[in-house]
Amino acid sequence: MSSKANYTAEEWELLSSAPFVVGASLIVVEPSGLWGILKEIFSAFMATGTGKVQFHDNELIQAIFADTHQRQAPESVSSYAKLSQEVRRQQMQTDALAHCRKVNHVLAQKALPQETLEYKAWLLAVAKHVAGADKEDGFLGLTGRRISEAELEYLHTIAEALGIAVEPNETPLEQSATP
Prior knowledge:
Structural class: mainly alpha
Strand content: under 5%
Helix content: 55-70%
Largest sheet: none
Radius of gyration: 16 Å
Shape: globular
Number of domains: 1
């Protein structure tokens, strides 16, 4: 099983920041207004935390949680504040997808197959919870769809970046990434 000692400092930062990076990149996919953004942020924190319980036997995920008391937001977050909304959205998504590809590479080299599947399922669960936190294309969050077409498309892109094949009409968590 994996522990922090199995990874370089850069790899560990990559793995431990991935839920934050993925969640933040989903928040900017669709404009949600202040209330929607707050719900999505709360959902990102809650979904990240459920990984500790859901994957209690996964030493990699547990080691990340044991180390999170020292975590801060990645330094790149402050650089996004200077960008226009559209440029920020595109840049955050591009960076998050690159992050996911690097995570996939590190996991393929160093983690056990079951750890890898569970870690990827955890990241996809965070992404899906954020995407479904607020209704899109509706009125005051009372009507509309739980996950917009843009969010669903981006969920598929995240799954692909993590090396998980998903059918076009399938939500990423419905397929084999879950243990």
